[in-house]
Amino acid sequence: MLTSLSAIGSAACTSADPGNAPVAFPTGAERDTEVKHEACDMAAANAQRFDANGDGKPDMTRVPDASGRELCRVLDLNFDGAIDVFVYYDPAGRERRRESDYDRDGRADEIVSSRDGAVFLKERETNFDDKLDTWDYYEGGRLVRRERDSDGDGLIDQWWAFNDPTDDRCALVAMDRNVDGKPDPETVLDLCAEARAKQAAMPPRPQAPAPRPSGAAPLPTVPVLPAGAPTAPQPGGASPR
């Protein structure tokens, strides 16, 4: 059954099932949820500052090392004087880390990590408590799985497996309701099961006629007689009406 993401989030929490004996949190299962900022010395003497809108405030600051290679970049994307993004580069000049502040509170809400220029991890803070709660994992540029701490207790209680390479809205979602640190098999939801069932039940579309091979003789045409023209005699001597 297709279930909304909000319903999944409200249903999944790391608390014991009603009527069952309380269970202890699994030792060592706690996730590091601190939003960690990597230093970027935007006040460095050799930092290069650019004012795109002429308001006297830098909208982009490039911080190089002693050799001139760019280490990191600081961006004010909406010209409000507050930092929106920190970008960090590897020795080859490719982006390796990006910290983004979407709610303009001066703290990162998303940290994107890349290797050889390709994203492999996104860490996000989604409920305004200044703690990471969502970890998205990528392979070959595609989101393949997600882990979530939906109730902010430091324990993963949702596992998402994105099982349709053509649609990143489709996933198998499992939850941990007995707080043992493992997904409960009976909770698995297929977010696109209903849509796939409807598509499978639809009649197949009619196939278009195959194209004629190159050089084939043209199909005979049927002549169109002008109005009132006599028609050919009918078989058996019958005259047309």
Give a short synopsis of this structure.
The protein has 241 residues and is mostly beta strands. The chain has helices at 5-11, 193-201; strands at residues 48-50, 60-64, 70-75, 85-89, 95-100, 110-115, 118-124, 134-139, 142-148, 158-161, 172-175, 184-190.
Rg, Å, rounded: 31 Å
Biggest sheet architecture: 12 strands, antiparallel
Strand order of the largest sheet: 1-2-3-4-5-6-7-8-9-10-11-12
Low-confidence stretches: 1-13, 15-19
Mean pLDDT over the full residue set: 84
Helix content: under 10%
- N-to-C SSE string, H for helix and E for strand: HEEEEEEEEEEEEH
Total of DSSP H or I helical runs spanning 4+ residues: 2
Structural category: mainly beta
Count of distinct strands: 12
Form type: flat
How far apart, in Å, are the first and last alpha carbons? 63 Å
Task: Tell me the fraction of residues in β-strands, as a range.
Answer: 25-35%
Blueprint (SSEs and pairs):
Blueprint: H1 5-11, E1 48-50, E2 60-64, E3 70-75, E4 85-89, E5 95-100, E6 110-115, E7 118-124, E8 134-139, E9 142-148, E10 158-161, E11 172-175, E12 184-190, H2 193-201
Antiparallel strand pairs: 1-2, 2-3, 3-4, 4-5, 5-6, 6-7, 7-8, 8-9, 9-10, 10-11, 11-12
